[in-house]
Target: Membrane protein
Amino acid sequence: MWDRLAASDPGLLRLTAGLRTVTAIALTLAVLAALHVPVSQLVAGAIAAMVATFAIREKQRAQQAVTLAVGLPVALASVSLGALLNQRVVAGDLFFVVLIFCAVYGRRFGDRGTALGLIGFQVYFLSLFVGATASVLPELYGVICVAFACSAAARFVLLPQTPAGTLDRLRRAFRARLAQLLATQAELLDAGPEEAEKVLADLRTGTARLHETALLIQGRLEDGTSDPAVARLLQRRVADAEIAAERLGLLLLTARSAQRTDTLTLHLPGAPLPAGGELPVRDEATVALRRDLQALRLLMLRPAGEASGTALAQVRNRLLGYREEENLPPAAPAVQDVFRGLGEAARAALGLRLALDGPQDESDDTPATARSREELDAEDTAIEISEGSETEEPRPTGLKRPTTRAAVQVAVGSSLAIVGGELLSAQRWYWAVLTCWIVFLNTASTGEILVKGYRRLLGTVLGVVAGIGLAALVGHHTWTAFALVLLFIFAMFYTAPLSYTLMSFFVTAMLGLLYTLLNTYSLSVLVLRIEETALGAACGVIAAAVVLPVHTDRRTNELLVAVLDRLADVTRGAVDQLSGGAGGDLVEQARELDQALADLRAATQPLTHPITPLRSRRNTVRYVVALLETCAYHGRSLAATAELLPTHPSIAADPRLRGACGRIVHNIEAIAAHVTDPKSPARIETGSSIASMLEPGTLRTPRYGRVTDRVLRHLQRLDEAVSGLARPLGLAGGPAQPRK
Model:
């Protein structure tokens, strides 16, 4: 059960965020209740504790403490201005707009600027929500100070979270998700024709989740490790395990089909299992394959203290022997390839265990296992941190800067929301402003804002229905209502990264309970919340579409070009190193490619959302993103293979690969030029296959042939995927040009 929890919530980030926020609020309510403050101040303290906890996102504890300390005077100033300007309509509205602009503009100063902006805005909103006046300011000062103190206690004493601890939990989550993926791969081996498509969908989901966890680890390495060499080693081992697991899935798909499986099958949602797919014959080879898949999963899950003993050592030795053709069972070539893939995955698992848990018992090693350890030790020794200076890309200035543009947009949208909100209700107009503010958080294009506004409205409508029922049940039972508020706050933070609609549902249901506590609940109030939410979302969309707009097409094109540039860098660097040159930090380049692709995937959500009316366009976007994921997989694999070159005894440089790579890089650059400027004269080149461009002979001994063939397969598939990108993007091809 713990492994399942670790896999469903990598690093326990959502669980920790929810528990920490609930703990801070519960502490605040306990202290304020002991002081016998009125209910309105209890509500104010709960909101202040929530804001002080969730606003701070820095990873280092010292930085968190500084931000929390600076945030307290910001909160006191904000609640003071809210109370003083509450009765001055024009002045209060103008200041609110200025505050919103400053809060959004503060994002350019990093996590601390973002946190202080959130605290300033939310505490001003708090003063409007509880109807603060100048006469109650001293009491509110005390309430806010208690809330910040309780937030600090929850963060630093009761539920401390260090970067190293978070990274350790992320590593456990990676292991758990890797084990889940291996279990799904075993299911694919046994699935009948009726279950095969469902298992294939689960395989895609498991592969994507493993990749997501690897990216989370990448983002925590710098803060979670004390030594850059350790960070680089862990980065390398995680990448190796991810690539080995994905390759094993592809080999299993091929074993299930009549022909070699296209990599796109694993990345395109809805793509069927290749035609002719049949269950492998249930002979001794496939029985052994099922056994070894389960054994690999067991080795991956066992902690270091339990992964010892002769039996487990024999399992590990058998799996690693498959890498060197030892004890391969007589079977079809595709099934034997799966056994070789198991050997590669076992080696990646051994490297991951050595990186995470340190040296292991070597007394039961076979020669094959000893050679794997020697290879891993040689790779560890060869790891060096590049200290070359990085060239910073020019950053936009003025209104072109994203934070400045967003600040102007949200200020205009909030002004519209204030005017429209006050026409709907002179007392609760601020709900429209809050919605307008929220739809701009973590969005960068008009389409993203539209989808976020739609999700918030849907969650609000469902939350109003729930709020009506809860208000009737709870009545005026104060502590029962506060207990439900805490439950909903936990659910809000736990579900926020998964579903914005669910988060909005829990927020609205919680607000219904708060209105009940403040004796301001009525059906008309909750209906008004729906109206204000719809108005705020509409104002946000209008502002984004009219004021300094960033259209979704423009945003996705910019990110697509960034992905293509990173792909060209990885391909060029990997092939250069495989040809005998120096390719640079290829693992880091591969991770930059993965991050750029993740950004593109997030930006295309408005185009692939179920409510989009352009069905054919949605299918095209999904196809393009799937092709890019295929390209990224082959780029990662080439980079990982190239990084083995200096130390691996079975890999040698082949200068001919550099010429084979030229067409691929040219085509990537041609597509990027076409996306940037559709009138660009660039054309992709077509011609003979990559394998046929290399003359036979060199490196064709049995020991080297398999690795060389794998590199050629990755290059061939990458060439095919890049050429496939040109068609949906409207780029014509031309004959191949002679290359030296």
Q: What stands out?
A: Residues 385-392, 696-705 have pLDDT under 50 and may be disordered. DSSP finds 26 helices and two strands in the chain. Strands lie at 684-686, 733-735.
